[in-house]
Amino acid sequence: MSLLSVIVPCYNEEAAIPFFYDAIEKIRGQFAEKHPDVDFEYIFIDDGSKDDTLAVIKRFREKDKRVRFVSFSRNFGKEAALYAGFSKAAGDYVVCMDADLQDPPELMIEMYEAIVNEGYDSAATRRVTRKGEPKIRSFFARMFYRLMNRISDIEFVDGARDYRIMSRKMVDAILELGENNRFTKGIYSWVGFRTKWIEFENVERIAGETKWSFFGLLRYSFEAILGFSTAPLSFVITLGFIVTFMAFALIIFVVIKTLLYGDPTSGWPSMICIIVFFAGTQLLCTGIVGAYLGKTYLETKNRPIFITKEEE
Ligand code: UDP
Ligand code: MG
């Protein structure tokens, strides 16, 4: 017998969980017909929900011992929830999927077979369409992936979901990355292993609403950049060089001009332009360096990634 752990991060998902449970149980039935040697466990992570998510999970736990859960002391974010799930999972294979059925459970059989029959370590999914999503959001998402692939060494796949199945080896590798600033999509790539990509059309969430605001996503993309690229620091150095070179050229120009034509007290507007320009670039650069320093500061505190209030 082998065990498959399904990790489900939940933040205010009381409305979606019953639908999710029904859907996944149906798949478990189909799964058992094809692969009778696989059993399931469900690990729900209640990420500090403010609604009755935990009560709903406990209700399922009472009638089905396959259901296990971790409840956080507060909202630590999906990345922390995934980490908690990985550390609790006992399975030989681990799948993570959202509670809102935006990750089609019926793909699970194909994903599992990619590992056992085709020799992959992992099978991941990506949405090929973003229909049902605001246009502006899709646009920025696409720009973000293009940028990330340029400025970082690892691969970022456009439309990639966190929905993925992994072998025990890969999960153990992920658990070794105990950083606080977790951008799981980057971590999946960083640990390596052979991944099969499975494509599907976007599905809208079954109940409840998305936790992502536009600014939430923007912050998330900064996390990704700070966590997986030092390109902004190189940018600062390059900019520093260019600006210094320009300053030298300007100094030589001013000195020669003064020697040749004297020094009438004009030139106030250009002076202001220069001051403002340099003040701006200096602030920008200090800010970028500061952002990395801040992350370093938070990492050195070595705080736990999540705090458990209750688990079963
Ligand atoms: N989630 C979480 N903690 C959070 C935010 C979200 O565990 O702080 C969970 C949420 O319950 C869902 C999954 O992460 O199962 C994806 O969230 P959502 O559907 O809001 O994101 P979207 O699909 O819109 O990108
Ligand atoms: Mg969703």
Please give the structural blueprint.
Blueprint: E1 2-10, H1 17-34, E2 38-46, H2 53-63, E3 67-72, H3 78-88, E4 93-96, H4 108-116, E5 122-127, H5 135-151, E6 160-167, H6 168-176, H7 184-190, E7 195-200, H8 214-228, H9 231-261, H10 268-300, E8 308-311
Parallel strand pairs: 1-2, 1-4, 2-3, 5-7
Antiparallel strand pairs: 3-8, 4-6, 5-6
Bound molecules: uridine-5'-diphosphate and magnesium ion.
The gist of it:
52% of the residues lie in helices and 17% in strands. The chain has ten helices and eight strands.
In words, what does this structure look like?
With 312 residues, the protein is α/β, with parallel strands linked by helices. The chain folds into 2 domains: 228 residues, Spore Coat Polysaccharide Biosynthesis Protein SpsA, Chain A (Alpha-Beta Complex), CATH 3.90.550.10; 71 residues. 52% of the residues lie in helices and 17% in strands. It contains 10 helices and 8 strands. It has an 8-stranded mixed β-sheet with strand order 7-5-6-4-1-2-3-8, sandwiched between helices. Helix 5 runs parallel beside helix 8 and helix 9 packs antiparallel against helix 10. The structure holds uridine-5'-diphosphate and magnesium ion. The site of magnesium ion (MG) has 5 residues, from loops. The site of uridine-5'-diphosphate has 17 residues, from strand 1 and helix 3.
